[in-house]
Amino acid sequence: MAPRYRAFTRTFFSMLVLFTMLSCSLLTPLGQLGSKTATPAPTLTPPHPLVVAPQATRPPAPTATPAATATSVSASVDNIDVNYNYVDPLITVLFPLFGTKILDNYMDFTITNRNAQPVRVMTETEIVGYSDKASDTVDIPANGSVDVTENPPLTQASIDNLDIERPASLHVRVVYLQNGDEKLILDETKNVTLTARRDFPWSITGFTQQEDFQLIAAMVTPTDPNVEALIRDAANHTSNGTMVGGYEGDTLDSKGLVWERLSALWDAENDDKLTYINTTVTFAPGTYQRIRLPYETLAQQSGNCIETAVLYASAAEALDLQSAIILIPGHAYMAVRMDDTNSQYYVIETTLIGRDTFADAVKVGAQEFQDALPHIDAGEANYAWVDIGEARTAGINPLPWH
């Protein structure tokens, strides 16, 4: 089995710092705080800046297979050998990706039967107090070997309580059945660490920087009821009081429907008194940044650059509009495609929320992206275009919302 994500084992914290934390330097407002009037939709030739998506090939789903670095744990009883590896620390924000084509499994067993007859073996894995129990029953042929993978799911209550990094115990139990009775092979606990639920790793050993950046799409949560409520509020700012999904066959937003919906979202965020405020970088070892999910950004009425960009991308995806997160050294913003056939986008500087109009945010975003585009096309370090749709195709699905 390819040991994908084994870099998140005991040597995780030796990773190189590849990315400057998103400090989101405050941008100078273009307008006055009191300027909250709705922005009109563009005409057939929108006067607002439009940009073309980068031409560089976007990163595919991670495919590298770094060598396993976890120390194997072994036990042997009655000619039945058990060897297992587990991930430590567990990066909470990425836990739904375990066992997918993006990340390897949390727990890998290799069980070998050196007997002349087949045996039935039962395995159990649990992060005590934080996960449900994962279990499997396998039949192993005589003189054969079987691999077993388990991913004990973290409970929503435990995720909500992981506001800081916490120690935990991994409980592993393996038995085999003999004449209907369980015979113990091993029953033990290991000390493990669970990171805070908002700690996002900006560098992962075994991943390229582009592969790691693509994981930010997991924090884009279009089905969050809080995002849906934001869209409902945005309908109050459209000309007909509705928020339709998709592009409706329009080309380059000639009818202004994309612009109107995006502008309405901006106005709804202003209604909620959302504003740009930077958040504290986590004190956890390694290259992490504490990032709030959209429901937290809305509840706390504030967000930094990556948080406001993720929130806007969540609403865009919920409206079946194609979006991207743009990462540059120390900053992030986002873009929404104008139609589903051309590669032209509205680029939005989301940190201007609460201070400037939507038109100003697009103007600034377009200017920023024109500066960033050559670096993105050149594949330079610390620059990235994270297409949310492509991330979904690669298997990076939204995290569970609160």
Structure description:
- This protein is of the alpha+beta class and 402 residues long.
- It folds into 2 domains: 15-61 and 205-393, no CATH class; 73-194, Sandwich (Immunoglobulin-like).
- The protein has helices at 156-161, 209-214, 225-234, 257-271, 294-300, 305-318, 358-377, 388-393; strands at 51-52, 73-77, 80-86, 107-113, 119-127, 134-140, 144-150, 166-178, 181-194, 199-201, 275-276, 288-290, 302-303, 323-328, 331-337, 344-348, 384-387.
- A 5-stranded antiparallel sheet has the order 1-16-15-14-17. Strands 2-3-4-7 form a 4-stranded antiparallel sheet, with no helix packed on it.
- α3 (225-234) packs across α6 (305-318).
- The longest helix is centred in the C-terminal third of the chain and has 20 residues, at 358-377.
- The two termini are 33 Å apart.
Total of DSSP H or I helical runs spanning 4+ residues: 8
| Structural class computed from helices and strand pairing | alpha+beta
| Biggest β-sheet: strands ordered side by side in the sheet | 1-16-15-14-17
State the helicity in percent bands. 10-25%
